[in-house]
Amino acid sequence: MEEKLIITISRELGSGGRTVGRKLAEALGIRYSDKELISKLRNKFQLSAVGIEKLKGEKKTWFSEFLQMVAPVPKEAARLEKDKPSIQEFRPDVTTDDVFKAETEILKAIASQGSCVIAGRSGFFALKDEPNKVDIFFTASYAHRLDRVMTKQLLSKEEAAEVIDEVDRRRENYVKRYTGTSRYDARNYDLVINMDDLSEDEAVNLILHYLKFRKK
């Protein structure tokens, strides 16, 4: 029986790392988990994907805690919301700590089910105790990322730059808060891949060669 393999994918928006992760999972014949994490978080907290991203990007939870103090959610209203959940973009009763705890539990549950490729910014940390794990970070030049985001999301150059800068800020805040390290620190990963001069398929082949070499 083959040893379970867990591959975590961390990436800069517009680097192409998500697509490489999917293609890598297909090449290895193992599960690929990407939107599954966001879906489970949405269901758990009844927050929109945008709301989750905004919450995860906050440096502190003081704003939510302040709102709870000055305008607490009535117990009856909270009970009704639980009985009849609706997706929201903001909930003052949910903190960044709640999301990180849930995310870690979900990632561990996914990893416990067998070999997989998991795309998620905290995977390298949340799954640090997995015995056979490979952590990969995908990066690219700002120009490369701009072009990709403009094409994928049909945005102007200015709009794409705004999206990239905001996502970068939020992801760095989140990782720093809960891992005590920068997501850009190469020491967090086994492989750091610059996608500027690589196609997605070339990146997959590079990783496959690394995995083969790693077994020796």
Descriptive report:
- The protein is globular and about 45 Å long.
- Mean pLDDT is 82; it is low at 60-90.
- It has helices at 17-28, 35-45, 49-56, 62-70, 75-83, 96-112, 123-126, 142-153, 157-179, 200-214, and strands spanning 6-11, 31-33, 116-119, 133-139, 191-194.
- The protein is of the alpha/beta class and 216 residues long.
- The chain has a 5-stranded parallel beta sheet with strand order 2-3-1-4-5, sandwiched between helices.
- α1 crosses α10 and α8 crosses α9.
- The protein starts with 5 loop residues before the first strand and ends with a helix.
- Helices cover 56% and strands 11% of the residues.
- The chain contains 10 helices and 5 strands, in the order βαβαααααβαβααβα.
Please render the helix and strand layout as text:
Blueprint (H helix, E strand, L loop, with lengths): L5 E6 L5 H12 L2 E3 L1 H11 L3 H8 L5 H9 L4 H9 L12 H17 L3 E4 L3 H4 L6 E7 L2 H12 L3 H23 L11 E4 L5 H15 L2
Parallel strand pairs: 1-3, 1-4, 2-3, 4-5
